[in-house]
Task: structure prediction
Amino acid sequence: MPHLDLDLDAVTLTEQLVNIESVSQDERAIADAVEAALRPLDHLTVTRHGHTVVARTDLGRGERVVIAGHLDTVPVNDNLPARREGDLLHGLGTCDMKGGDAVILRLAKHVTEPNRDVTFILYEAEEIDAEFNGLTKLSASNPELMTGDFAILMEPSNAVVEAGCQGTLRVDVRTTGERAHSARSWKGVNAIHKASGILARLEQYDARRPVIDGLEYHEGLNAVFIRGGVAGNVLPDECVVEVNFRFAPDRSEAEAEQFVRDFFDGYDVTLTDSAPGALPGLDVPAAKAFVEAVGGEVNPKFGWTDVARFTGLGVPAVNFGPGDPMLAHKQEEHVPVEHIERCERLLRTWLGAGS
Amino acid sequence: MPHLDLDLDAVTLTEQLVNIESVSQDERAIADAVEAALRPLDHLTVTRHGHTVVARTDLGRGERVVIAGHLDTVPVNDNLPARREGDLLHGLGTCDMKGGDAVILRLAKHVTEPNRDVTFILYEAEEIDAEFNGLTKLSASNPELMTGDFAILMEPSNAVVEAGCQGTLRVDVRTTGERAHSARSWKGVNAIHKASGILARLEQYDARRPVIDGLEYHEGLNAVFIRGGVAGNVLPDECVVEVNFRFAPDRSEAEAEQFVRDFFDGYDVTLTDSAPGALPGLDVPAAKAFVEAVGGEVNPKFGWTDVARFTGLGVPAVNFGPGDPMLAHKQEEHVPVEHIERCERLLRTWLGAGS
Result:
């Protein structure tokens, strides 16, 4: 079993974590290593749930914070093992999000008497369908382990707080026609031609940019797939445009769906996927205090993250982790060493330990 | 080896041919059976070229006519064996075009002293890419076997002459954009949205219907495929619309291509496939005489057929065969018995034999 040494600095520990390959649904080795590293620590109660590991302090503090990171990565793309070059650490998962995981593990071991109780969660399968997600499973089997006054998801956010997240939904917008031999096209109805109006509306779409708690979100409505066609000599009888709507967290899922249905009024619209956004929640005292403790800067989170899951459980949550989210899922993903160090330092201080 | 009995009536012979499965590139058995049935006939010179069989009279007549039919079919679709129901024969290939093949075989055997020399060609692989087509191969290896004063292709045409054929070409019309995460779509350019203008032009297309030699053709410009998309959360950087142009035979391939390029002016257009049309050629005496002999009625041929290949070799050609072309390639394909009988009777008479 690969070994993790939590006494190493967080950057070297990130490197160790990166070198344990852990593509979604192949997290056994990394979860075993994480569990083995945490299990001996007397100040923590450690439990295992599938390939998700939870470690909690129980000091009877007035407040509890959840600090969470996923252990899986997107597929390998010729970007392993980790490689350090000057101030950057390169490799799959360096940015998304083993730098954050390393910080979590360091805090778990070394902040033995935090000023607030902490639940550390290192979980499986964030990069694939929600049904496999370790937090989905944990919220079903042990919801008590996810509760707290505040949650920090260590998703890459340039080591600055990114608050809330936008929601996302997907619809299939469909046209139908009637097949005919293309040599006698007047006998049929071309469904691809009928999709012209769908694309015209998308082209004219004007994105809403609402300001919520002082943060400017930015919606987006995009065709992500289009398909149609039967054979090279046949008029197609169906065309499907798959559309992804990223919506600001002031809309509910139902409102977002209604917006899309109205937008494509007159077309056949089928909802295929939906996840709610999360309001920034910066008016909650625990969130406000955290933002102040880590420097006061806050950006809106455009992508969907598991903060929405915590918000759904009534736990205010923010993203705060090393790495540039624009690099996530890219072959050339990397993380600045300084981001890892800064996150660890700021979180240690916030938890009442010396830096 | 399956046996063909050319003394049976043409309808029963059609049934025998249908029951020898011969999907494109699997024509060995049917070609063997055809060759074995023709080889013993003293008045014919029989040659074999791949799975194409050629049988010629050589009586020194003043005129030579080519009568041709393909032996292959589109894939089986739960429509074998042949099934006779009243006045219809059902099954794969009954219409396209073993009814015509049966007539050819009957003429080859029983019209031993035709008033014009005849080259009968039963060929392979018409239903797939042109490179495999028996006539493509024959025109390369033995072009002399395809020459004549006139050619009849026994493609389904409701037992009425269908003259000329429309040309066909295919282009890929492409848009490009720039990938970005769909949560930050303003960082990229959506190639699918840009295809809106391509579809809008197709929707507004107004088909030309030129009258040539008294026959009204009918052009058609249709998207037959559309594709684009990278992942459910990524702005697509490419969208391709595959467009099929069916053009009347008064345009050359080059003119047709230019029309399409002008039509999609401003877009990236790549020609992927092209086949010329064939003018009806009804001013040629041999064609005129044939039309009169079989009843005087002539319709335009909208689909592309191998008549274009003969026209390209300088041999005027028409389509004349049993079956409704609208039923070709359909699961429920069938042929009226009366069509087969009428074609045989009219061709026998035209070749100077009693009916």
Q: What stands out?
A: The mean pLDDT of chain B is 95. The two ends of chain B are 31 Å apart (CA to CA). Chain B touches chain A through 48 residues (CB under 8 Å). Chain B is about 30% helix and 25% strand.
